[in-house]
Amino acid sequence: MTRKGLEGGSFKVLDDRSILNVHQAAMQVIEEVGFEVQSDIALDLFAGAGAEVDRDKHLVRLKESKVQELVAAAPSEIRLCGQDAAHDIVLGGRRVYAGTGGTALYVYEPDNNRTRQASIQDLRSIAKLVDKLDNIHLFMLPTYPNELPFEHVDANRFFAALDNTTKHVMGGVYTPEGVKNVIEMAEIVGGSPEALRERPLISMITCSISPFRMDRTYGDLLVTIARSGIPVACPAEPLCGATSPVTLAGNLVVQTVDSLMGVMLTQVANPGTPVIFGSVATSTDLRNLRYLAGSVEMGLINAAGAQMAQFYKLPFYATGGMTDAKTLDAQSGYESALTAMLCALAGANFIHDAAGLMEFAMTVCYEKYVMDNEILGMVMRSVEGIKVDDETLALDLIKQAGPGGNFVAARHTRRFMRREHYQPTLSDRASREDWEANGSRTTWQRAAQKVKEILDGSGYRLPDAVRQKVLDNIEGIVS
Question: Which long-range contacts (CB under 8 A, 24 or more apart) does 14-20 make?
């Protein structure tokens, strides 16, 4: 049983007063401090929308009323589609989905405890693997193909995904030409430009720089994507004690302003652009100023970010499920589970980076995708909660069984046993004797067997005619 799009929100790290305080602080920053925009195109758009623009300092300030007007122009729900409609998802409200993420440079191989550089073949293989993992609901491009020239990276990353999974594909982009090529590719796969806008098979990501800065490249890219009508996420990555105040509340203010910058720019560029408010906010190891991916504070900040997105009625791109561990040990499991759980219970719409990532988001591991798929199944079961009604209370059955009775053979047990209880696909629940008889395999070894089965088996490929048309029309794709 696949659980996705369930309503979260049972965990509230912020009360209503706190949400309002964060909002008011963010509005005060936008109105009094402003934010830096290095893109001339973006500056012109903000000026045309009535913002106060200091062109010498590249600084933009807006009144709260204008901020509210621009935020309200953005859709409160966004549909992200897969090539198979069974994988369509709707972001918004408190509905929860989980996916991959990152731009990892390395792949960890647990059998030899070493890492190697990621390649384009890894992207293909990970897409094929994730296509078969039911608790990972969409595919965000997780690795960077180190061997490819920079100008061909965008098209190759998206092609590797579209050619190997029927789930929705989201990814970062690096060049204007890359954005153009990726959109053209998706139009071919979708059938036409109109069909792609009706059923967006891809979405993109552009990041702001904390605190309060939008550089020229990403400002220009964001305008281009918004004008294309393709869904776009606008996350920010403030780090406690480094690029934001060390307090979690202060970090949340910076994250809110940083992401709203992108949201507002999409709406002045193209009102109604499907845009996703986003966070990659986390804490910092102040001993060495290193980014932390597995801290519990990251889970708390992103859970709070989900509440801010719900306040603004915007879809939310959260970050959780990562670990700072270098190997597949207990730390790898508990850090991934805790941050993913906090985000999901808070009703974060798309928890990205929720599978496969480790070592400060620099590394992915095939076996960890399978392990995280198991964690996410349990997380989504937790989001579902406990349904209480006449059927589930089972009072008549309890009366019938009476003192000392049992419920093993009851029809009620057969009807509810699979949907009421998560059915693991990786966890070991055998006796010690049976476990030993099956080779005493650890969790990662069982995951490795599943990776092998999936990658050795058949997988999705684009229809031959569509695939050839992409190769004929988009330059630089390695097939």
Answer: 14/304, 14/307, 14/308, 18/249, 19/307, 19/308, 19/311
* Average pLDDT value over all residues in the chain: 97
User: In this structure, what is the dihedral angle of CA atoms 472, 169, 79, 83, given to the nearest 10 degrees?
Assistant: 60
The rounded distance, in Å, linking the Cα atoms of 430 and 437 is 10
Find the mean pLDDT for residues 33-37. 98
Bridge-based pairing state of the strands 35-37 and 59-61: antiparallel
Give me the CATH number covering residue 123: 3.20.20.480
Are 196 and 267 part of one and the same domain?
yes
Q: Is the pLDDT of residue 332 over 90?
A: yes
Give yes or no for residue 289 having a pLDDT over 90: no
SS (H, E, C) 253-287: HHHHHHHHHHHHHHHHHCCCCCEEEEECCECEECC
Please indicate, yes or no, whether residues 113 and 163 belong to a single structural domain of this protein.
yes
Residues 43-93: pLDDT tens digits?
999 999 999 999 999 999 999 999 999 999 999 999 999 999 999 999 999
Chain segment 109-143, per-residue pLDDT in tens: 999 999 999 999 999 999 999 999 999 999 999 99
Helix axes 40-48, 216-228, angle to 10 degrees: 60
pLDDT for res 286: 87
Note whether 361 and 307 are same-domain residues: yes
Helix, strand and coil content of the chain, in percent to the nearest 5, comes to 45, 15, 40
pLDDT of residue 161: 98
Q: What percent of the chain has pLDDT over 90?
A: 97
| 55 phi, psi to nearest 5 deg | -70, -30
Please answer whether residues 100 and 139 qualify as being in contact, where contact means their C-beta atoms are separated by less than 8 angstroms. yes
pLDDT score recorded for residue 175 = 95
Does residue 440 lie in a domain region?
no
| Same domain, residue pair 196 and 94 | yes
* pLDDT in the model for residue 1: 74
* Global pTM value: 0.96
The radius of gyration computed from the CA coordinates of the chain, to the nearest angstrom, equals 23
C-alpha 453: how far from chain center: 26
d(CA 259, CA 255): 6
Q: How far apart are CA 261 and CA 239, in angstroms?
A: 18
Count of CB atoms within 10 A of residue 393's CB?
11
CA-to-CA distance for 33 and 335, rounded, in angstroms?
36
Number of domains in the chain: 2
Q: Does residue 477 belong to any structural domain of this protein?
A: no
Beta carbons within 8 Å of 65's beta carbon, 6+ residues apart? none
Checking DSSP bridges between strand 78-80 and strand 89-91, what pairing results, if any? antiparallel
Taking only the tens place, the pLDDT of each residue in 163-177 is: 999 999 999 999 999
SS3 79: strand
